[in-house]
Amino acid sequence: MDNLKQALYALCWQYVESRIATAAEAIRSAQQAAGEETKSSAGDKYETGREMMQQETNRNMTQLAEANKLKIALNQIPVDAPPAGIVQPGSLVITDSGNFYIAISAGTLTCHGETCFAVSITSPIGMQLKGKKASEHFSLNNKQYRILSIL
Prior knowledge:
Layout: H1 2-36, H2 43-75, E1 92-95, E2 98-103, E3 107-111, E4 114-120, H3 124-129, E5 137-140, E6 143-150
Parallel strand pairs: 2-4
Antiparallel strand pairs: 1-2, 1-6, 3-4, 5-6
């Protein structure tokens, strides 16, 4: 199961790197488009176009900053730490209704034939899981979960 945790960690890195690359490319494209915009006789059209490109660049800069925050958070996850017996960042939590990798919110990950949900410890389900032990129960959105094991 340690291989599964390491593979999930690697998938989370791929997710973050993909988000960073996508945001950086969108910023480059918007800046290139702004540089190619030429002033026409309709000055308002030119200014509106440049403002729209600036807003797009700002949105992508925000997405890039968020992706970098995910990278920092992921960098703090212990990859090779032995199971602590309680749910904490880096834990793989096996429940009767799904598997949860406590790292960053990266959605559904499939690895080694297993489906896991990568969630942040600060997400609603992460908050419910934090500090729990095997065989404990928790509830989220009117659904009951039982923790089978913590890896």
